[in-house]
Fold:
Amino acid sequence: MAFFIPRVQLKIDASRLQTSMEEMARIGATAGGGVHRLTLSDSDKDARDLFASWVKSAGLSLSVDEMGNMFARREGSDDLATPVMVGSHFDSVPNGGRFDGSLGVLAALEIVRTLNDREIATHRPIEIVNWTNEEGPRFPPSMLGSGVFAGAFERDFAYEVRDTDGMRFVDELERIGYRGKLPCQPRPLAGYLELHVEQGPALFTSGIQIGIVEGIRGLTWLRITMKGARDHAGPTPMHMRKDALVGAARAISAIRDIPGNLGSDLVTTVGEISVSPNAINVIPELVTFSVDFRHRDENILTRAHQAVVEVSGNAAKQEGLEIEVTPLGGSTPMAFDSGVIGAIEETCLDKGYSHRRLWSAAGHDARYAADLCPTAMIFAPSVNGKSHAEDELTLWEDVTRSCEILGGALVSLANQP
Structure:
């Protein structure tokens, strides 16, 4: 799919965008300079309310669907034309960064504000979206809002997901007042764009200003539970122990070595672990830990899954433990649309910004949007590749540049006949 690139030089108000980003970052702010804004928490509600107020001030119409996804619409010269969608998310991981997700939504808002300021009309309507539950730590799996929207998950499945305190997704959605009436289901879109911080070191270390994302690696989440025997740490001989934590440690070490056998582009992570009874003088009886692995080749993902199960089973057997492996979700790899990628690339050339193509190792809502329409993403450099951390940083000049590239590509898509 090819796009004509109109030579519209969108000069955004960089100061206004920075002010919006900083004001949003105060919601759920942490002492370390990050944000703690879990899905459907009070701080998530506050972020949504602030965004809604800005949408109203910009003269956009706002609708909310059954999953809490928010859509801010700027009409086009042909209101019957299929809209172009752009956005990201406001929810965060625990003690996460202030640029992750927010940049994509607020850059889109700044572009619309700039179009309004300059009285520039687009042929197609533009819809800015704030997706619900992109991150997923509170209500796994991740990308629930965009997943239901694209038909990858059933709405009722999402509604029944519970957090670690037993709270249901649907009940928390009701509690914060963002269970909308608009059906959450696939609908026609002319295209989808998403700006995001890279969350990796490739752009920053190479001095490249803009990343053009060719696709998103697939990912799989598992929960592994190992059960042994609870005994006294003193009298129990070493050879008689069924120590669940030792078994988990063996498995975790082996899981870390899997990429060396299957390919350097594969990454594996154990990010959560719980130990019971978690007492200094008691042999651990029960250990549960998560496994996250990612690759752009679905065959490699399948082999990685098999390897995780195998090495974990071997570790459990060595310690005389019971083991259970529970799938938590995931997504298949997705290549983005060459035409939208070309529109972004032409905008970079027009602006004179250095750029490179790359695949995203992180999951994004664009993964599910790509099931519905031509889709691509733009990356802004992450300082030292840091993300999902309070000291996550993207330089303001990179925020401005990436927003202008997003604006050029968005106008291109929105002006297609």
